[in-house]
């Protein structure tokens, strides 16, 4: 079986490590890639095709894992060459998932819940062809929600609306504590209710958010575009703050 990646970053490289089978060959291409991505492709020891078109044409499964803003463009450019299953793992809205469904055959809407490099990442799937990916249960936890394209994306965005908004609030509170020279005490009082590992997890979340503000802003934009923004005032405020962190 051949599995091709559109986009080759952390998600793709980690899946290559997780889905470790002599019966599976991973494909991608260095075409139009940055030096960092080309280095990652080399390190991951996947088959590097001359063009991404060639990789997609020779794949039984195509996985799109780049960014929400590029998801439709990637499907438009390469979906027509996909003869097998087209799995999107970008943090997209249900509306975007339906657009991609119209551009591809055998589409599966996917959502990775939790960090892909965590001990137990869970892959949620929806769509009529989702059951065909249950073999991935041999390598990570896979849950098929329904036959409805968009259900996995809905769950992904619901989770993001909570976690990313909470991350922005955490950054604000932590910076205020720092300005008062009370950062250690800040975590001490919070771990009384949030658990002993709250400080470690919080600092990791803060660092992750600040390192990827652009991508997280795109994800919040998807949420506001998908749902009624008037009902998501906190998400809107979090997006505004995230944009400030970019500067």
From TrEMBL:
It comes from the Archaea. Gene3D superfamilies: N-(1-d-carboxylethyl)-l-norvaline Dehydrogenase, domain 2 (1.10.1040.10), NAD(P)-binding Rossmann-like Domain (3.40.50.720). Keywords: Coiled coil. Residues 203-230 form a coiled coil. Residues 3-75 form the Pyrroline-5-carboxylate reductase catalytic N-terminal domain. Pfam families: F420_oxidored. InterPro entries: 6-PGluconate_DH-like_C_sf, 6PGD_dom2, NAD(P)-bd_dom_sf, P5C_Rdtase_cat_N. This is 3-hydroxyisobutyrate dehydrogenase.
């Amino acid at each position: 079986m051949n599995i091709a990646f559109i986009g080759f970053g952390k998600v793709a490289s980690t899946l290559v490590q997780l889905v470790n089978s002599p019966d599976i060959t991973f494909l991608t291409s260095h075409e139009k890639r940055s030096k960092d991505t080309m280095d990652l492709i080399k390190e991951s020891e996947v088959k590097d095709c001359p063009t991404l078109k060639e990789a997609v044409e020779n794949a039984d499964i195509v996985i799109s894992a780049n960014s929400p803003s590029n998801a439709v463009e990637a499907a438009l450019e390469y979906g027509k060459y996909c003869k097998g299953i087209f799995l999107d793992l970008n943090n997209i809205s249900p509306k975007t998932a339906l657009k991609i469904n119209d551009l591809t055959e055998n589409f599966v809407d996917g959502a990775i819940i939790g960090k892909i490099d965590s001990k137990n990442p869970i892959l949620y799937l929806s769509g009529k062809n989702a059951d065909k990916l249950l073999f991935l249960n041999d390598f990570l936890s896979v849950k098929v929600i329904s036959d409805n394209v968009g259900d996995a994306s809905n769950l992904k965005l619901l989770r993001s609306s909570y976690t990313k908004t909470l991350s922005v609030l955490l950054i604000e509170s932590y910076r205020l504590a720092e300005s008062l020279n009370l950062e250690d005490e800040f975590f001490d009082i919070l771990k009384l209710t949030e658990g002993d590992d709250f400080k470690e997890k919080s600092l990791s979340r803060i660092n992750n958010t600040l390192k990827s503000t652009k991508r997280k802003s795109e994800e919040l934009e998807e949420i506001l575009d998908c749902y009624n923004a008037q009902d998501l005032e906190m998400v809107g405020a979090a997006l505004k703050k995230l944009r400030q962190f970019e500067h």
